[in-house]
Each structure stands twice: as structure tokens, then as C-alpha cells.
Amino acid sequence: MRYSKLFIPTLKEVPAEAEVISHKLMLRAGMIRKLASGLYTYLPLGLRSIRKVENIVREEMNRAGAQELLMPIVQPAELWEESGRWDKMGKELLRFKDRHDRPMCLGPTHEEVITDLVRKEVRSYRDLPLILYQIQTKFRDERRPRFGLMRGREFIMKDAYSFDVDEDALDESYQKMYDAYCRIFERCGLNFRAVEADTGAIGGSCSHEFMVLADTGEDKIAVCTACNYAANVELAPCKRQNDKIDEKEKELKLIPTPGKKTIEEVSSFLGVSNKELIKTLIIKTDDKVIAALIRGDHELNDVKLTHVLGVDGVELADEETVKKVTGAPVGFAGPIGLDESIEVIADYSTFNMKNFVVGANKQEHHYINCNWERDIPRNRVRFADIRIITEEDTCPKCGSKIEIKRGIEVGHVFKLGTKYSEALGATYLDSNGKERPIIMGCYGIGIGRSVAASIEQNHDENGIIFPVTIAPFEVIISLLNPKDIELKDVAEKIYVNLQEEGIEVLLDDRDVRPGVKFKDADLIGIPLRITIGKRFKDKGLVELYERKSGNMKDISLDDVIYKVRDKIKSLK
Ligand code: ATP
Ligand code: MG
């Protein structure tokens, strides 16, 4: 490809809305353009990287014995009603009606469609195991689309589904996919970690997320410094700490706390540490309101609370509900005097606290020196693990120190079990002719998100540093003076020869200053650059520059092709 013909609208300035580096660089490097919130056009350069990731995914899926198919994006509502998800999915599911008034949706995922296919086509244990996958556009009407391709509304996903006769066979399919994922992300040059994860709304028994480690990641993971334990903080259990505090109970007092609402405001006003406070969060669930008690320095874990309550989801109650339940505005809720109909769930870490501070259910007031039993009977409360693990906690597996890191979820593998096969009636006949539900797994990879995650990990102040496996081009030839016939001929010759070697090469034949060429080559992150300029005139040499290491070497014309070929091989 010739740079002069390539549609690559690079930018000097980045739109202010781009917050993370991958979003900024993808816009600047002319890889993507926004159409509307969460909707992006992949420009030629961006699409090339996307296709590279797709091909790696395809090769590894095929190698693992999975077979590619392609399902419709538009899905009929009936299937979602059968699985029970039509009502459960919130606004993320974009629903509409066709001309016959039939309710439909845009597929955010394809468990229903694939299970429908398999229930119609698979009869016997002889047809199993089966792993099917597709690489396709998904639509999720995300609440907060942001960070470019990282969290779009329309995005490309590889989704695979496995079908097996029993749990052991599912374990095998799961392991195959897990191993394929490791190879895929390694080949994409990502620094990643597979972590234990919650099974969420899709349901199922076991799941791992593949997290790319990056400070801008939206997920937090707990990683043990000693053993191999790693889990999403949504899931990581907090060990119960049972150290009793040897302190006398002091007198309960109602204290005015004018204008002090947040934990920080209240604790500094009262001159205590936030560990001596218990915050009371009024929470709305499917059909009721509850109170959750958390130590002041801790954070509520929605996922754990959802599981403890056995509900579909939880959210903070709105102001009106808080007022109705506590009789006070937001900021003063507390367990003392709360109506008996409101269930109170307290985190284990509050169990042994003494002389703590709580909201008084009265505007601008808190209680100090509150104590269990005397002021709040412990049997009024359900104690459970409902907080997010912190670096003060220890590894749930080995007890060593843990670290909390940020990650970008690029892939997710689930053991679904029979959730969908039972709901939709996907069964097979076993060797005794007995009908049994098919055991399923599902496996997703965000293609665009993987490209963005790679840029988060591989960049410098000059731009992107693509790993050669997913770079839009492997080599760029910077022809410094296209008007010089001799130089031009050399560049053309190298260009053709590299192409004949099957190397993806971009020839920068533009009539612009060398500085501009180097800047653009750095910005778009091409791993290798061949410079043809003055040194060729003087000494017959060309320069080979490696974007990542910054190494520059003079090489003779005869050596260029094989040196570049070998270098690319070594980088793959
Ligand atoms: P998240 O927690 O980030 O919302 P998810 O758990 O909803 O993701 P899955 O249903 O597991 O995602 O989807 C499989 C993969 O698709 C994810 O691992 C991620 O890489 C990708 N993905 C999911 N949502 C988006 C999105 N809005 N934009 C881009 N990629 C996405
Ligand atoms: Mg997920």
C-alpha cells in the first residue's frame, strides 16, 4: 500500500472527550471515527488491526476444534422469553418491532439463538462434543459507552459455545477454550492474567476472565503476591477477621453533625478514623428495600450482596426512598430504630466493632459510641461477606499479601451447565436411549477491545507501538526524497520484494518533510521502518529502525529483504 493513496486521516489535536490513551491514539492515528455515542467507523488502518486479531482468534479456535458459523444479529423476542431473559435484561437489550409488529432485539450475545439451533439439529450423544463460534457485531445499549472501542455500544465479539454430554466433557471443552485464549492473547502480545470471575447475569457455575493489566482498566483484580490466586474483586472472598477489641462500652450519644454527610466529613468532624464508622446504605433490590452496613473505610460489593440476597441485582435507593425508609435525607441513615420490616445485612468486618459511629436516621445527626447488643441486637442483623477486598486483606487461598490491580477484560469463559438447554429444551439421547439436557459453555472475546487494550500497554509519547502480530502494517518504507529518481527506484524495489515475501508493507511516498514521515510512522506504530535517504546516496546503505526498542541499524541493500524477514519472524 502507498501512503499517498491510503485513507488515513491523522489528527494533531485529540477531541476532548477522549479520556484514555488508546482512544486518543486511535483517533489521532486515523484508525477510528465516532458516528454517535458508542458507535464507531473502523477506518482502513483500524480495520487492518481488527482483522489481524480476528485471524489469530480464528486460527486458534479452529486449532482447538471449534467450527465457525455466522448467526443473525436480529433476534426474535420469543427466544428470549423462553430463556427468561426478555424481562431480566434491562435497557442494554435494544428492542424494537418489525413491520408485522413482532417484538425483536439486536443480539447482545447469542446463547438463545445457538441453543435454538442445537436443539433442532443435535439428536444423539454421537453428535457431541460440539464447539461452534462466530465473529460478529454485537449491540449493547451500554449505560456509559466510553473510551472508544473499549466500551462501545456496537462492537465486534468472538463468541463460542460448547455442547457436551456431561460435566467431565464440559471440563474438557472449557480447558480447550481456556488454553486457546492463552495462546490468542499471547500471540496478540498482551500482558494478561486469567482470573476467577463472577458468573453474573448469564448464569453458570465457573468462569474466568482474561484481564489485560493496565491502570486505565475498569475492572479491579486481587492478585496474590505468593501463590497463583487471582480473582476479580467482585468475587474475591474476604477472610473473616475475628480480633476482638478490648475496649469498654461508652455511653451512646446523639451528636449534631451539621452539613456533614460523607464518611470523610463525619469522621474528621468527630475526630475519629473512618474505620470507627459504620455506613448504612439503603439498597433497592428486585422487590424490596434493605439496609447494608459497611465499615467506613470499606466499599460495598454489589455482586456479593446480590448473591447473599439471592436477587437479580441491587442498586442504591433514590433520595425519596431513603427519606421514606429512614425519615431523614441521604447521609444520615443508620441501623438504630430502623423499621423491623427492613432487613439489615452487615459485613463481617463490623462484627467485633465497639463504640462506633452510625447515622441517626435524623437530619444532621449521628450516634457515637454505638455498640452491638446494647444498641443493636446482633440477631436483628444478618452478617455476611458483602464488601470489596482491599490490600489490607489476605489471600483467600494461602493467606499471603494480596495486591489490587486494574485490568481490562478482553475475554471471558463460562461453564453454563444446563441453564439454557433446560430452558429451551436442548436435549440429546445418551447411549441407553435416555434423553438428557446438553451441558453448555460459552466463551467471548472483545476484538476491538483487544486492539485498544494492546495500545494501552504499548505506546510512548510519540504514539502507538504495535506488536507485529496485530500491527496494521509490518514495515513502513520512508522514502525521504521521492523526487530523487535513484532513491525512488530503490524504495520501489524494496517495496515489491517485501510484498513478494508476503510482508505487509506501507510505502511512504508522500512529498512531505522527513520529520513528518517519521512522526506519522511513530504515531501509527508500525514495528519496523526502513529509511531511504542521504545515507544511500553517500554509502549505499538504508536504515532499519525498530519502533519498540528504538534500535537503528545501517544495512546494505542486498541484506534488506532477508534481515526484515528474519526480524519479523523473531517478533512474531
Ligand atoms: P463488561 O463487564 O466489560 O461489561 P461483559 O462481562 O458484559 O463485559 P461479556 O458478556 O463477557 O462481557 O462479553 C465478552 C467480551 O466482549 C468481553 O470480555 C469484552 O472483551 C467484550 N465486550 C463486552 N462488552 C463490550 C463493549 N461494550 N464494548 C467492547 N467490548 C465489549
Ligand atoms: Mg464478562
SSE blueprint:
Layout: H1 21-28, E1 32-36, E2 39-42, H2 44-63, E3 67-68, E4 74-76, H3 77-83, H4 85-88, E5 95-97, E6 103-106, H5 111-121, E7 130-139, E8 154-164, H6 167-187, E9 192-196, E10 206-213, E11 219-224, E12 230-232, E13 253-256, H7 263-270, E14 278-284, E15 289-295, H8 302-309, E16 315-316, H9 319-326, E17 343-347, E18 356-359, E19 365-370, E20 381-384, E21 402-417, H10 419-424, E22 427-429, E23 435-437, E24 439-446, H11 447-457, E25 459-460, E26 463-464, E27 475-479, H12 485-500, E28 505-508, H13 514-524, E29 528-532, H14 534-539, E30 541-546, E31 552-556, H15 557-571
Parallel strand pairs: 3-7, 15-17, 17-20, 27-28, 27-29
Antiparallel strand pairs: 1-2, 4-6, 5-6, 7-8, 8-24, 9-10, 10-21, 11-12, 11-21, 13-19, 14-15, 14-16, 18-19, 21-24, 22-23, 25-26, 29-30, 30-31
Helix pairs in contact: 1-11, 2-6, 2-11, 12-15
This protein binds adenosine-5'-triphosphate (ATP) and magnesium ion.
How does this structure look, described?
With 572 residues, this protein is of the alpha+beta class. β14 (278-284) and β15 form a beta hairpin. α1 packs across α11, α2 packs antiparallel against α6 (167-187) and α2 crosses α11 (447-457). The protein is globular. Magnesium ion (MG) binds at residues 209, 409, 412.
